[in-house]
Give the backbone structure.
Amino acid sequence: MNKTVLDLIGNTPLVRAQNLIKNPQVELYFKLEGQNPGGSVKDRPAYNMISKALERGEISKETKLIEATSGNTGIALAMVARLLQLDIELVMPENSTVERVQTMRAYGAKVILTDAEGGIEGARDYAEARMKTGNYFMLNQFGNDDNWQAHYHTTAPEIWRDTNGEITHFVSSMGTTGTIMGTSTFLKEKNDNIQIIGVQPGEDARIPGIRKWPQEYLPRIFNPKKVDRILEVTEQESRNMTKRLAEEEGIFAGMSSGGAAAAAVRLCNELQKGVVVSIVCDRGDRYLSSDLFDQ
């Protein structure tokens, strides 16, 4: 009975789609990562990155952490850092939703907002420059192997267990790419025939949490050989599916989850039979101040 909030990270539910697909030979499951205590899939790598850095002696209670984030990682890091009595400064574009900024501050983090035009790349540049002053330690989710290894050790084994090893396709939106890298590595070890599907935004689509990175900002942890296929989704497609998830499946999520679900449904419509798992990476209440759910 001595559980802490950190002990509640992981073991999230896997639920079967009831209405989005019609072929009874194809099963579509959603992994509800919004059920993590910090509200997103990013609780997993946040805890792993900080705890492993502490174990290796790279950081201590006196270390000041800094990280660039588009939202969910920042919230998770703010929660974990405070529970482990660490100070953290989070850098994000000023057009991030107010819910995200307020949540980070509620956990006690310092939040720096950078120019919206620079996007997450500008936030990353700012954090890199601050780190070079020598007063900060950057976890660097984009290049930290503890990011993808969190999913190798937790997310993927849960999916394998909860589908009784019958999964045929895994679908995930790609941001830092930690989720898809770690899950792919584990699932391919179990069954190399499992297809790994990455989801990216189409041309000019702006979908929070999904990126098509310029080459110079491509996450170092990304290995294209671990992704069998990439599906592109439009912004409208992602918005529509986010609303359908809520209305038809009772799953209240953000737009990146809608994008992944749109790709997953498209994939399911191609299949004669299969077991498809799609990641629902957070909850929709993080987007209520945006126009995502406007009628």
Remarks:
- Strands lie at 14-16, 26-32, 64-68, 87-93, 110-114, 137-138, 169-173, 195-201, 229-233, 274-280.
- Residues 29 and 277 are 5 Å apart (CA to CA).
- The first strand starts at residue 14 and ends at 16.
